[in-house]
Amino acid sequence: MPSFGRLHLVTDTRPGRDPLAVVRAALSAAGAELVVQVRVEDLASDREAYDLAGRVTDLCAAAGATCLVNDRLHVALAVGAAGGHVGALDLPVDAARRVLGPDAVLGATARTGEAGRAAVAAGATYLGVGPCYPTSTKDGLPAPIGPAGIAAVAGAVDVPVIAIGGVTAASAPELVAAGAYGVAVVGAVSSAADPARATAELLAAITAVR
Ligand SMILES: Cc1ncc(COP(=O)(O)OP(=O)(O)O)c(N)n1
Ligand SMILES: Cc1nc(C(=O)O)sc1CCOP(=O)(O)O
Ligand SMILES: [Mg+2]
């Protein structure tokens, strides 16, 4: 696999959204530099997840981009995605690694350095760390950890840290400066008037720092 992408687009499958149109627009701007994480609502059926993930995997393959699947690792395997992402309510990281195999990309959510070290020891290849700022995309999250929280985790591990939660092109530089390898977004692209332009602005913001 080419070097790991620094901009992760997490699909927005809330009612009224068009995740495939957003993915197409983002790929038109970022191409192989993009990682798309297919994330469906908790109540979505496996069939719905499979159908969306299959279509996103095909779009990513055509663009040379990486496709990951959130939570549902059997769906990741079924569509031939590059890997998956798990958090506290999903399979434990070591079990996820056994399911996906040794070569897959495996992301794990970590909110502290200690949790990050444990996830890496269990087989995570990158960490999703947040929420960095308030977000309206997901309920029930702990208080935002800001750049200092990113620095705490990034300083504790030697895998890429992907900052998530309320991230925008305006805030991405301070997160990268704090140690994030990249960022993951939902609303900054999905809610943008021009998702392709928003993607380009995020990429530029990430790479402006280092
Ligand atoms: C890059 C990235 N970081 C964190 C998460 C959150 O995963 P999780 O804690 O399992 O919560 P859900 O997304 O499953 O609701 C993520 N998806 N991606
Ligand atoms: C899915 C998710 N996980 C988070 C975490 O902190 O674990 S924040 C989040 C939502 C990110 O959406 P937006 O970019 O619109 O804020
Ligand atoms: Mg999860």
Automatic annotation (TrEMBL):
Positions contributing to 2-[(2R,5Z)-2-carboxy-4-methylthiazol-5(2H)-ylidene]ethyl phosphate binding: 135-137, 166
UniProt-recorded Gene Ontology molecular function terms: thiamine-phosphate diphosphorylase activity
Keyword Transferase: yes
Location of the Thiamine phosphate synthase/TenI domain: 7-189
Key words, A-Z: Magnesium, Metal-binding, Thiamine biosynthesis, Transferase
UniProt cofactor note: Binds 1 Mg(2+) ion per subunit.
E.C. code: 2.5.1.3
Annotated positions binding Mg(2+): 71, 90
Record field: catalytic activity: 4-methyl-5-(2-phosphooxyethyl)-thiazole + 4-amino-2-methyl-5-(diphosphooxymethyl)pyrimidine + H(+) = thiamine phosphate + diphosphate; 2-(2-carboxy-4-methylthiazol-5-yl)ethyl phosphate + 4-amino-2-methyl-5-(diphosphooxymethyl)pyrimidine + 2 H(+) = thiamine phosphate + CO2 + diphosphate; 2-[(2R,5Z)-2-carboxy-4-methylthiazol-5(2H)-ylidene]ethyl phosphate + 4-amino-2-methyl-5-(diphosphooxymethyl)pyrimidine + 2 H(+) = thiamine phosphate + CO2 + diphosphate
Cofactor(s) needed: Mg(2+)
Pfam family, one: TMP-TENI
Top-level taxonomic group: Bacteria
Function text: Condenses 4-methyl-5-(beta-hydroxyethyl)thiazole monophosphate (THZ-P) and 2-methyl-4-amino-5-hydroxymethyl pyrimidine pyrophosphate (HMP-PP) to form thiamine monophosphate (TMP).
Family: Belongs to the thiamine-phosphate synthase family.
Name of the protein this chain belongs to: Thiamine-phosphate synthase
UniProt source species: Polymorphospora lycopeni
Record lineage: Bacteria, Bacillati, Actinomycetota, Actinomycetes, Micromonosporales
